[in-house]
Amino acid sequence: MQKNVTRKDFLLNASKAAVGITAVAGISSLVTTANTQARTQITAWPWPYTQLDPEAARIQAHNFYWNGKDCCAGSFGGITTLLAAALPDPWVNLPMEIMLYGRGGGNGWGVLCGCLNGGAALISLVTSKVDSGPLISELWGWYEQAELPTDQANLVGTSGGYLVHNYDGALPQNVSGSPLCHASVTEWCLVAQKKISDTERKERCARVTGDVAAKTVELLNAHFAGTFTPTYTDPAAVAACLDCHGSAVFNNVMTKMDCTPCHITAHKTGSIVEEVGGSPSSFVLSQNYPNPFNPSTNIRFSLPQTEKVRLEIYDIQGNLIKSLVDYELYQPGNYEVTWDGSDNRGSRVASGIYFAKMQAGKFAHTKKMNLVK
Q: The pTM is what?
């Protein structure tokens, strides 16, 4: 039986339907409530951003780390509180605690570094999907390749510039080679010879949280000023791994991360590294001998302190040929390894110019070698 609908009923039902559609559509956007009794104000994504002081973000993030927000909410909140002061609507309505899950690499799981998680979330909130990708890659790539905590982070600490003073000394630095929490923290602990529970390790993460907040602001400032230029490129080791594991062959790996810090035994080098004694006072990569050589040559390197070492052979085009020491931890001393003129697949290489490249902490050096047949 059809029921006649009055104009009043029609308008009432139509308004209810409109409210329902608006509510569903609003799920895809962050919503702020200006007056819960009077109206709901929807702030469209991306949210507004204004130029900020990176150093102010650094100090705020460090402070939040030590005051119950940890790394993820610390880096995120270090920026959002500055935005809330400059742009109250909508930023005053967003609690930084939404990012607490990211602490310890995601609730202590040690995956993505929490401060990177917080920085990327902020970037994603104020930029489009297309624009956010290069900014996030730049942030994560910088973190992977930088000496952390940075010189600036240590300078602020030693000058008493932080709001929390649990440790004001200069902290050891290292290149983590990975955006993963467990890799980054573990590598630093090995270099600094500290435990996870030590105050210095916690201060290290507090300073890195500040570093990431400052870097995120620096990138966003440049983006909105129209001066951002991406500089990050995938490490050579990634390209080398994807030669086989990318789409051209196995097609079973998708990554931008350097594989070798974690997968140190993925390709057993077969190289025998011998300790030859002595107590060196500096890092050294010696010239190989004999040189020119055929079929093999010896390469000696020296370490004045405990470090992860990478010693690789490249051809004249810059292609990775052989990994002799694949990101392995060595104690102070002098060491020697032999290269037999083969590549990572065991095939003999052609005559020509090759380069031995060593990296250990901040030290990096290259030696030119000549294989003749």
A: 0.66
